[in-house]
Amino acid sequence: MVPVNRVLPPNTLPVDTHNFKYIIDPYNEEQYEGSSLTERMKRTLEAYSQQFTPLWEGFMGSEHTPSLAELEQLLTNCSAFIFHGMERFLANIPPSKLAALNLSECQMAILFDLVQNSASMLRQSKLDVQKSDGHLALERPLETALLLTLSGVRCVLLNQWHSSPQRNINNMDSVMENLLRVGLTSGQTVHALRKGEVQSTEKDTNTAGSDDTVCHEDSGNRDGNAHDAQPRVTPSPSAFNCVIYGLPNLVVT
């Protein structure tokens, strides 16, 4: 195992890469383009195995569905926690249980949830009919972030609204790349997701040669400012789905 010799930038805090824990698709419900989340996570672990991931521990739904006790054990004994799965993260652990945990060792929680398919919706709907309105309200994204920070987590990265399988997969890959290999802070990592979305949109706009782009350029020509004219690019709302609560200055070391 190659040691991580990363010099911390000023005013940043370290997150131990050797104590990451994860839960990936606990009910083994998501398949995308013939590949499961478990298979993708295995490739991620392999890609960064030389320095960052050899000591990571967790559960993958294709092998084992973690119990509530196992989930609590992971949360209370980690430097960072990753969840990538269907539906809501707090559907896997009661909010009252989460609020009672001491998660002061967990510096960062990375949650890629809020994806649905027919199997997950059927399973979740059977559970939700037994819950009160107040209980369901506590499983929403903002309340999830509040409960995690109340329990001691310093930084929470999660979706604000429902996402797509491809978007979550792309965001997960980008977050791992920027946190591990590049060494960005937690805040810079989330900002990079938005920049990537804008760059993608710009590329699509330029390739398509849309009428809207042409209109802006013609307007610039008429005003004699063709050299300065630039097509306006509006990022997709999905670029702002993934947000960060808490400290933006955590660095994986």
What does this structure look like?
Residues 194-205, 213-230 have a biased composition (Basic and acidic residues). One of its GO terms (biological process) is cilium movement involved in cell motility. The protein has 253 residues and is an alpha/beta fold. The protein has two domains: 13-192 and 238-252, Rossmann fold (3-Layer(aba) Sandwich), CATH 3.40.50.1460; 203-237, no CATH class. It contains nine helices and ten strands. The protein has helices at 37-47, 68-76, 95-100, 118-128, 133-137, 141-150, 165-182, 186-208, 211-222; strands spanning 13-15, 20-24, 31-32, 35-36, 57-60, 80-84, 108-112, 155-159, 242-246, 250-252. The strands form three sheets. Strands 5-2-6-7-8-9 form a six-stranded mixed β-sheet, sandwiched between helices. It is globular and about 50 Å long. The model is unreliable at 198-222 (pLDDT under 50).
Please state the overall shape, judged from the principal axes of the Cα atoms.
Answer: globular
Number of domains: 2
Spans of at least 5 consecutive residues whose pLDDT stays below 50 are 198-222
Provide the spatial order of strands within the biggest beta sheet.
Answer: 5-2-6-7-8-9
For the termini, the CA-CA separation is 14 Å
What structural class do you assign from the helix and strand content? alpha/beta
Kindly provide the name of the CATH class of the largest domain: Alpha Beta
CATH topology of the largest domain: Rossmann fold
Main sheet specs:
6 strands, mixed
Estimated radius of gyration: 20 Å
The total strand number stands at 10
Can you name the CATH architecture of the largest domain? 3-Layer(aba) Sandwich
Strand fraction: 15-25%
**What's the number of helices?**
9
What is the helix content? 40-55%
Indicate the mean pLDDT: 88
In N-to-C order, the SSE pattern is EEEEHEHEHEHHHEHHHEE
